[in-house]
């Protein structure tokens, strides 16, 4: 939770990274950076999940029809088929890595086959003891289905690898010009990756030889159409081309994040334990290796995740507003009596994709003028604040009005904290990764806040925690952050 801003920016001196980040704030009245019209798909996307779905379903049907005990009970066969497909879909087995092999799938596929058959045996025994599967049927079913399933997937992957070698996907590389040219050259030296870079998208051109550098939306759109681009490689820093990546995804491109510098075994500071970012990372992340680089699939359109998050926001914020409405009234009356008129504090903040919105808080400080309100950093130590205002800031009661922002859809309960346009522009140019925080809806609390990064603390650390939260978002993580935030309110430390 942030302060009503006032002194020099915190976090110490920024590091130099050798590139100029792109701000996410849209220029008023002007087109954003690389944005281009994306009404229709510019290239027909491939659907690698369909052959895998057929292979898995065919193996389940073959195994079930080969065993008399299952064949005599059609509901068991349907349960076997649907159970296996559901487990595989949940485990992201229909989102293969960049260059898939049957050996990569072997443990996950066999494990899910065994789980499905064991669940089927338990279900049949519970519902109809006379139709319970014998141990022999269970063993034969698991072995037969695993063998056929792995063989089918091996054939699908072999055909896909062969197609990628014979007809590599035209690819764009997005990132700092120098790094992007280096990554593109590495991919051109390894054609077996199935990706053929045809251009580099960068905010600035770089001298020397290499692929054409595209600096405008029109050039990107022309390259997409002329080369039938199907894939995009995003080089660090990631997340700073949100509108462009969404447009490319809508055009049918597959997006991959390529870590051009860091070791694949390195886990970003602040990332949840137990989740790997290396070459053998989880299937849900769609990770792997390309031309020796660690890569991970980027999903910029999480419609299901956005829906679940929004439902959680509406339910919790609506319930809390009903519960705390008497408290809000008491705070408003006390502020009016102690500090005079002007109880509600309104300020422009930057939300998702750089869109401005009006944030609501209880007023605990009165800046000299609008310029001070927009450009000063922290007032947590201001002596002129009344005791009641100090109490509200220390207990975060001044933030409760933001529940209305959540209910209206301007904010979320959990997400990166929103900041004013002046500081967003400043930090986006100074701290790598700051602009990437705006990929997701801003929030009242977040991963950075529950780790003590509130008020006058390191901006660089906040960027790291916020981006780690976005990269590994889940609805359960939001619930955990809300519970930890509620616990921290028992021992308030101020904003």
Automatic annotation (TrEMBL):
It is a multi-pass membrane protein. It comes from Streptomyces fagopyri. The chain crosses the membrane at residues 49-70, 76-94, 106-127, 311-335. Residues 309-490 form the Bacterial sugar transferase domain. It comes from the Bacteria. The lineage of its organism: Bacteria, Bacillati, Actinomycetota, Actinomycetes, Kitasatosporales. GO terms for molecular function: phosphotransferase activity, for other substituted phosphate groups. Keywords: Membrane, Transferase, Transmembrane, Transmembrane helix. The keyword Transmembrane helix applies. Belongs to the bacterial sugar transferase family. Its main location: membrane. GO terms for cellular component: membrane. Pfam families: Bac_transf (PF02397). InterPro entries: Bact_transf, EPS_sugar_tfrase. This is Exopolysaccharide biosynthesis polyprenyl glycosylphosphotransferase. It is found in: Membrane.
């Amino acid at each position: 939770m942030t302060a009503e801003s006032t002194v020099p920016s915190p976090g110490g001196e920024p590091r130099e990274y050798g590139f100029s980040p792109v701000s996410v704030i849209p220029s008023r009245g002007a087109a954003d950076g690389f944005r281009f019209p994306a009404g229709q798909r510019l290239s027909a996307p491939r659907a690698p999940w369909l052959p895998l779905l057929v292979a898995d379903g065919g193996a389940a049907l073959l195994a079930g029809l080969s065993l008399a005990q299952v064949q005599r009970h059609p509901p068991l066969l349907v349960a076997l088929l649907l159970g296996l497909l559901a487990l595989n879909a949940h485990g992201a087995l229909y989102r293969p890595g960049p260059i898939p092999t049957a050996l990569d799938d072997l443990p996950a596929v066999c494990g899910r086959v065994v789980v499905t058959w064991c669940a089927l045996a338990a279900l049949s025994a519970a519902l109809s003891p006379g139709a319970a599967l014998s141990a022999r049927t269970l063993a034969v079913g698991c072995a037969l289905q695993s063998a056929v399933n792995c063989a089918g997937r091996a054939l699908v992957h072999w055909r896909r690898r062969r197609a990628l070698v014979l007809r590599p996907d035209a690819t764009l590389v997005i990132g700092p010009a120098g790094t992007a040219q280096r990554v593109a050259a590495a991919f051109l030296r390894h054609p077996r990756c199935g990706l053929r870079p045809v251009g580099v998208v960068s905010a600035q051109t770089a001298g020397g030889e290499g692929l054409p550098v595209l600096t405008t939306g029109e050039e990107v759109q022309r390259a997409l159409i002329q080369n039938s681009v199907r894939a995009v490689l995003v080089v660090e820093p990631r997340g700073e081309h949100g509108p462009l990546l969404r447009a490319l995804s809508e055009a049918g491109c597959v997006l991959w994040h390529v870590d051009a510098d860091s070791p694949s075994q390195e886990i970003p500071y602040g990332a949840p334990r137990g989740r790997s970012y290396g070459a053998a990372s989880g299937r849900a992340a769609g990770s792997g290796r390309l031309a020796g680089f660690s890569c991970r699939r980027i999903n910029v359109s999480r419609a299901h995740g956005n829906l679940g998050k929004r439902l959680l926001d509406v339910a919790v914020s609506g319930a809390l507003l009903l519960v705390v409405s008497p408290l809000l009234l008491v705070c408003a009356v006390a502020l009016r009596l102690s500090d005079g008129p002007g109880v509600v504090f309104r300020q422009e903040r930057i939300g998702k994709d750089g869109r401005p919105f009006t944030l609501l808080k209880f007023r605990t400080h009165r800046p000299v003028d609008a310029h001070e309100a927009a450009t000063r950093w922290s007032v947590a130590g201001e002596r002129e604040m009344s005791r009641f205002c100090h109490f509200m800031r220390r207990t975060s009661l001044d933030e409760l009005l933001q529940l209305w922002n959540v209910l209206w859809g301007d904010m979320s309960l959990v997400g990166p904290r929103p900041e004013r346009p002046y500081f967003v522009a400043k930090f986006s140019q100074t701290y790598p990764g700051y602009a990437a925080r705006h990929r997701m809806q801003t929030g009242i609390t977040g991963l950075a806040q529950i780790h003590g990064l509130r008020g006058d603390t390191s901006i660089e650390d906040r960027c790291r925690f916020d981006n780690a939260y976005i990269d590994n978002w889940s609805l359960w993580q939001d619930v955990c952050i809300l519970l930890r935030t509620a616990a921290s309110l028992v021992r308030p430390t101020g904003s």
